[in-house]
Amino acid sequence: MVATPREAFWAFGLYLLVLVAVWVVARVPVGWIAARSLIELPFVVLALALPFTGGGERVRVLGVAISAEGALAGWGILAKGTLGVLVSLTLAATTAPHELLLGLRRLKVPPVLVTIATLMLRYAEVVVAEARRMRIARISRGDDPRFLWQLGATARGVGSLFIRSYERGERVHLAMVSRGWTGGVPEASATGVRPVRAAPALLVERLAYAYPDGHQALYGVDLRVERGERVAVLGPNGAGKTTLALHLNGVLSGGSGRVEVAGLPVEKANLREIRRRVGVVFQDPDDQLFLPTAAQDVAFGPANFGLRGRELEQRVRAALAAVGMAEHADRSPLHLSGGQRRRVALATVLACDPELLVLDEPSANLEPVARRELAEVLLGLDRTMLMVTHDLPYALQLCPRSVLIDGGVVVADGPTREILADAELLARHRLELPFGFRLD
Ligand SMILES: Nc1ncnc2c1ncn2[C@@H]1O[C@H](COP(=O)(O)OP(=O)(O)OP(=O)(O)O)[C@@H](O)[C@H]1O
């Protein structure tokens, strides 16, 4: 359409006819298209001005002298711009975004372009979802952006929307990095680094870390986890639990102290192997899922670590089956319920076959049945597990051992039952068993 010569008037008429036919067949409401076409208004004004401002030979039309070249240029902008907008709107009205991406793939568009389109789409979704959340939060407190006197608040809202979207984008990026994303096309094989077999699954020594803004989050954490252990990481808000978890696969680094996974130091040279061995399931599944279908999201990690073809398919199928989501493989993660998304997020990490599974608040926002089902899935996994949680009964159910962190240091480490039975210890660190819960 863009390449069509401006003088080929019949071709533009034909394009328009095809579009109208699509609207009729797909039952696209013309009002929906018309309202959104207003976006083109500035270009229409420009196109209408060109015949009067253009140079060159002038011709008289209805008694007014206009520039022939300007009129043709204006027509070109009007025809190509309008049809371009109409095509985009028709696509938006008839095709779900993830189907559009699948279509690009099927049309054999180079993978790097599809990846760029996927990430752009994900960012757009992030912005829209954040805008929706902020709108609800504001409206529920009496705000109405239509009122002029709230213009200032609306402007501030737009500013913070972009900051929030940026931060959410960063968290999505962290989740990608922790599944082996290096920004390039996945390599065919993993690195040849050999971990020391007899070493503990995890060794953390005197780990201290301050965020770039100077806030010291960890002051010297010591922790040793043996193979096959399931350990709960407990502690009040802001204790440093997530900061510790993000050090375990090198998403955060640059502090002092030492972290080793299966004897392998978490440092730049080993990051690829470390990320293959340590799977982090983030607190918010929306930070973890960003591809058009659940199956593609689950395939992302193992593909980054070199799996291809049938082996990759089997890995994806097995991971989805392990969390009871096999029949949702081809659905968009955006259309799944919160509990289903959490399970797919877990599958994205299980598919990487990690030795050490790190879960940040796995039971948050889950209904009781989904919470129990997830517990069954986790108990059925034969892996070393570190579970950051505020859900003390869940810690008791899943983890024989607990580590209590407060103020960036480990303040207690022992059998979960003993820690939870120590009411004084819990109270000192702002932890509390749920009302009515008793340790028998
Ligand atoms: N990106 C950041 N920049 C600066 N400070 C941060 C950042 N992320 C966390 N912190 C600070 O580091 C400290 C530890 O945060 P962290 O998220 O590790 O705590 P947490 O124990 O996981 O808390 P919660 O239970 O509330 O999730 C907090 O005081 C927090 O404000």
TrEMBL record:
Entry's localization field: Cell membrane
GO CC list: ATP-binding cassette (ABC) transporter complex
InterPro entries listed in its UniProt record: AAA+_ATPase, ABC/ECF_trnsptr_transmembrane, ABC_transporter-like_ATP-bd, ABC_transporter-like_CS, ABC_transpr_CbiO/EcfA_su, ECF_ABC_transporter_ATP-bd, ECF_CbiQ, P-loop_NTPase
Any GO MF annotation of the entry: ATPase-coupled transmembrane transporter activity
PROSITE patterns (alphabetical): ABC_TRANSPORTER_1 (PS00211), ABC_TRANSPORTER_2 (PS50893)
Gene Ontology biological-process annotations: cobalt ion transport
Pfam families from the UniProt entry: ABC_tran (PF00005), CbiQ (PF02361)
Positions of the ABC transporter domain: 202-432
Keywords annotated in UniProt: ATP-binding, Cell membrane, Membrane, Nucleotide-binding, Translocase, Transmembrane, Transmembrane helix, Transport
Alphabetized SMART domains for the sequence: AAA (SM00382)
Keyword Nucleotide-binding tagged: yes
Transmembrane segments: 7-26
Membrane-topology annotation of the record: Multi-pass membrane protein
Family: Belongs to the ABC transporter superfamily.
PANTHER family named in the record: ENERGY-COUPLING FACTOR TRANSPORTER ATP-BINDING PROTEIN ECFA1, HEAVY METAL TRANSPORTER
Identification of the protein by name: ABC transporter domain-containing protein
Organism: Saccharothrix coeruleofusca
